[in-house]
Design a protein that fits this description.
elongated, little secondary structure, 8% helix, 1 helix
């Protein structure tokens, strides 16, 4: 079994829509280089800065 990693040790990126930082997730393992948004909501364009 692989050694556990701390969440603070995982890579982070900044969301292109909302500007908030987000961390690596297992489901993005194969496609991490192409991930730009923190969520589906931001990907659809509804999570822009100042949107409420």
């Amino acid at each position: 079994m692989p050694k556990m990693r701390r969440k603070s040790d995982l890579p982070t990126k900044t969301c292109a829509a909302c500007g908030l930082p987000f961390t690596w997730r297992k489901k993005w393992e194969r496609d991490w280089d192409n991930v730009r948004y923190c969520s589906d909501r931001c990907r659809r364009g509804k999570g822009g800065p100042g949107a409420a």
